[in-house]
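Researcher: Please generate the 3D structure of the following complex. Treat every line as part of one assembly.
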Amino acid sequence: MEDHGHDNRGDQNHEHADGQDNGVLYVGIDLGTSRSAISTSSGIRKVVESYVGWPVDMVARKVLKHDIVIGEEALKLRPMLDMHRPLENGLIKEGSEKDAEAVRQLMKHLILLAGVERRGDSETQVRAVVGVPAEALRVNKQQLRGALTGIVDSLMIVTEPFAVAYGLEALLHSLIIDIGAGTADFCVMNGRYPTDEDQRTLNTAGDSIDEILVKTVSEKHPETQLSEHMVREWKEAHSFVGEPPERVVVKAPVRGKPTKIDITEELRAACESLIAPVGETMIDLIARVEPEYQARIRNNVILSGGTALTRGLADRLQSILKEYGGGRVKVVDDPIFVGSDGGLAIATDAPDSDWERLSSN
Amino acid sequence: MAELTRTKQRLLQEAVEENVDVITGRSRATRERAKISFLVRSARIFFLLTVPIAIFTTSYVVAKVAGGRIEDLPTASSAADLTGRRQEIPARPVSAEPMVAVAAPQLIDPAVFPVAVRKVILDPGHGGTNLGTTDASGLVEKELTLDIAHRLRRLLEEGAFRVEMTREMDAELSLERRALIANEKQGDIFVSIHVNWLVTRQVRGVETYFLGATDDPYLSALAARENQGSGYSLADLRGLIEEVYANARMGESRQLAKSVQRSLYRSLRELNPGLQDRGVKTAPFGVLTRTGMPAILAEVACLSNHEEVQLLMTPEYRQFIAEALYDGIYAYANGLNQRSQIGS
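Model: Done. Output below.
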């Protein structure tokens, strides 16, 4: 009972003619706190919910008929599962073997979705580029590398905004802001491989909107029964900053009865909580660039990641830039897959000799 | 498009190296050091091989033009000894016939001999009864300079440089003694660390001095490119060609001062936003006149400024100063072969 992910084969941006030439499959993976996306050189693009669940007991095991449930199915069946969302703030939760195992299972699942049965059962060699938060520490990368041993044949870990920049070929005078669920990652691209100085990670991202929303809606409507999944769905359907196109009215159970509640103001406040930290970090990074390049970067701010879909966010960030001489913030066409597509571009561009050095065996 | 491809290749290479660092447990700094060491070693080998050949060939041509006999000239092997024994510079072949076809000897452009930095002499300013500048809070220049020098020494040694210090503790040294130590230790560069005191106490800034009244006119980008990474240390070069050395020293001092000043200002202003770039200056500091290698004196902070005093009280800021000095020295050493860019 494994989720087969959302197939986006038709939306493939990077069609690689070589596909699995020479028995090699290249994959780019955006391993996200909320969702994980994979793009492959064989033209497959899938996204799955980053949830892994194990049956809570023998009864659940019998009902589910599976030892493990992953993705959207896991979300649906969560009462019967010991649920793990293994990536906290975009990284494997520290000290949790179960979460490390969950990441392994999630990666296995993604590779399966990419059409590779099992490593060892197939001749196909998998070379993967995985995106992580900009400020991921070396120990985080080692942990991830350890968790993926045996899942892929060669592994390259890059920062998520770098993968985005590479995929968009925005390598010179650009600022990538990748806002996901767990983290908001910033990276100034100056034609060089980003250093610590060029990158920032904020833990204020999609999840923090959910937390605020749960709190404020609960305060306003104390009788409603809320779950984080319910709130997340509301946010994904209606998130906005500034003026909404219409009032946001959702249904929530009140003493078991579905009841309509207006969450417009609460949602606005929750979404707008991103603006100050994201805006300040954006300005801070731009201010650190050589003065003669600042205008170019201001005019090339690129917003990606699921939370980038928040209506009005790009415009609000652009209005902040006005105070600093003006600029342009644009949302990428495909915020969900832009990271995995970038990872795939890196994977296919890297020469064989480099992949051999990165062998995970 | 070709530029984009090159950029991508470069970025990919960096990404791969970073991953290899994670796999092997190697730090990025170690990788950089290994790269520099390799380049320096390669350059030394290249220089040791090519210079004797060049000298031999030149001598051969001179001899031919002058009508001298080849048998009178040093052999390639004896020429090779020149690199190790400075006194054995071969005399120009003397001929009874006039050397009508040979132009008068020209001073050699020092840019033709890009040099390498192997040994750094650190000079913590003041010491003993010579306190230097002081502040009411109890900060004393001689202690600050020693603290920063020790921090810088650790960084440089981690960076594969050899380091000697004119003083390692609170000791009183004359300027002559400092210069003598530097010369005895055959340092390739000399960095004297000081803390400033300005009458206008609102001002805080960094400035770097070197000795020399004229600009270096010898930066020939072409020759530098042709001879890049010679790996030949200035101490060796001094022994070989004194005249070239004298000019090289001035030019190199200026380059070193520029590199250190740039790094100090750019780094420190991050923690010290009010910092002013007081620039690279020349001045007849005694310690700079007597040192026989490129030498600078860096005023890394101002004890006359209250905000800077507060910063100097923290070990973090002193470490930051040391790192900025390191970056400047490293950039100078690393950029010797790209002087046209540094000097712009």
